[in-house]
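Table S2 (text version). Query chain:
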Amino acid sequence: MAAAACQLPGLPGMYGLGIRIAVYTQWLGAVLMSHVDESSLPNVRILGLLLSASIALSLVLHIADKALQAAEIYITLLLGTGIYLPLVPVYLVRGLTLWHPRWDPLCWSTEKSAPAVAIGNLSLLLSMASVGVWFHATFLPAASPGDCVQYAFFLFFKVSLYHEASVAFHVILYLCMILVCAEIIMRKAGFRVKNWRQARRRFRRARSSRYNHDYTWKIICTFSNTTVVCILIAAVEFTVRWNRLGGGVNSFDTAAQIIPALLSIVCVARVVFHSYREFVRGSESDDSSTPPVCYHTIVAPPSCPTVPSHAPSPFSSSSSSLREDLPYDWTKTFRGQAVDVKTPSRAHTA
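Corresponding structure-token output:
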């Protein structure tokens, strides 16, 4: 006879509905801004760093007090590492292509983050991955399921949290995260393979002419990020439901749940609105700053001044000196822009 699911008391302050909404909003906002406007993406990343750092600190404190069940640690790990899990397919592609820059999605990204934010993300990822390895490799094998079983979301199925395949998969996943952190540290320290360095130099020279390739990678990354985020949200919500967590973890009637949700929604909405406003202003400035282009032809266009036939040309060979007081405006086009020419060039005056 199969064991019954546990009725866990639950901790709303760790993974309550308001906290989950705040985290989900940041995840979806990061996916949206990575596709629409990567220049505004660091603001959403900072919000995710703060949320994940708060969840990680609370997790470590509760683990030290031995106040969490296995399912609760599993849920908290998903919430804390969710901002980094969309990078798993990216680094999988990098490894399969041997870090070739043409097939490296990160080489086509224009996102720029502050050094302090990058160090914070690296430290948080390394610490959370270490906790994940400890939880699945040490805590779960030593724990006894008892009379009831705690469940987890694994490959779209409801499996026991102590299942060998689930434990092995998560151990490998968190170990790969630690290896990625080590690769980033080595790369920042200057360690690079010679062939990769030469390929990246050729890539930088040819990147400007590969707009279609850039846009294709953006579409693929957006689809991948959306898929991973949807799987993470489903994993958290199904795990909460299957383990019948109580204590009001699905209630939204306290300030501890309303405040983080509203702050996250307002921050993401502000970034989206600011990006849209900058886009509108840029479009208006481009339309207003485009100068009218006049061409010196036999029949002048209506927008250009008509030049009399007896007007002296500044490019004629009879000009013996530079003339600054020409009575007519002579224009020519240079790379699509109108340039006012009032004096002859050196080649024509020689």
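Notes on Table S2: The chain has two domains: 4-287, 292-350. Strands lie at 4-5, 148-149, 151-154, 157-160, 330-334, 337-341.
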